[in-house]
Specification:
alpha/beta; Rossmann fold; 2 domains; 5-stranded parallel β-sheet
């Protein structure tokens, strides 16, 4: 998603950029301080939403919205202003929202829910290979894990298909009888922290779900060969038997249960 901020005040542009980054961390945010730069950016970029200040020295936001629409008909216009008297003219121009400065996160989120032209964005997912060796990819590149146990932890959670596992259950699977329970749980906390950091490097930290003393993954964030197989007929996994996450001994018991 591409966003355009147009405001003649630099501080206002920076403040709005900060709020938008919080609401839409994966969006590309462009900014302009005048009409010429705004039109040039709209010409060269498929802008989804333009956030326009109403009162600017060289042009009003109301007039600028018409010129932006002449370039991109389905652009969403959101006015940001300190003046309430322009609200009616703004909505006559089919604005998606009219927000009073300083714009807050809640205002932005509400406006995004009510866009005149809904933005269709590609949902990024981790691609997960479970049959054969377990591997994880993002944007075509392998995801790198500092410790093999952090990768194995993710593999086990993915094998549960969204179901939760307690810390004790995870420790029993990953280490069996090796080490004391206290040492295992301390190590697990380190692995969870490392796994979360690894996922954060590609903006996929919400793959991992933590509820009290249990952990799970969000299947909707994964493009996984295992999940596709489970959605098909029960014999869909027959050709893969004996090859499921073959680097992990516990995976043998998983496939037998299926």
């Amino acid at each position: 998603m591409k966003l355009l901020i147009v405001d003649d005040e630099q501080l206002a542009r920076e403040d709005l950029t900060y709020v938008l980054q919080d609401c839409l961390p994966q969006a590309e945010i462009l900014a302009a301080g005048n009409k010429t730069d705004a039109l040039a950016l709209c010409q060269s970029n498929p802008i989804d939403i333009a956030f326009l200040d109403v009162e600017m020295p060289d042009i009003s936001g109301l007039e600028l919205s018409k010129e932006l629409r002449s370039i991109r008909q389905d652009i969403n216009i959101i006015f940001t202003t300190a003046y309430s008297q322009y609200a009616l003219p703004a909505f006559k121009l089919y604005a998606s929202a009219y927000l009073m400065k300083p714009v807050c996160r809640e205002d932005i989120l509400e406006a995004l829910e009510n866009l005149r032209f809904p933005c269709v964005t590609e949902v990024k997912k981790l691609r997960v290979q479970c049959f054969g060796n377990f591997e994880v990819f993002y944007d075509g590149q392998p995801l790198l894990f500092r410790r093999s146990k952090a990768k194995e932890l993710l593999a086990y959670l993915i094998s549960l298909h969204g179901s939760s596992a307690t810390s004790s259950e995870i420790c029993a699977v990953l280490w069996e009888d090796s080490g004391t329970p206290e040492k295992q749980k301390n190590y697990l906390r380190q692995l969870i922290s490392e796994l979360r950091s690894t996922l954060e490097t590609c903006g996929m930290e919400d793959v991992l779900i933590h509820n009290r003393n249990s952990y799970a993954v969000n299947p909707k964030k994964l493009d996984c060969d295992l999940y596709r197989a489970l959605e098909q007929e029960s014999n869909a996994t027959v050709s893969h038997r004996g090859e499921f996450m073959k680097q992990y001994s516990w995976a043998e018991f998983w496939i037998k249960e299926k």
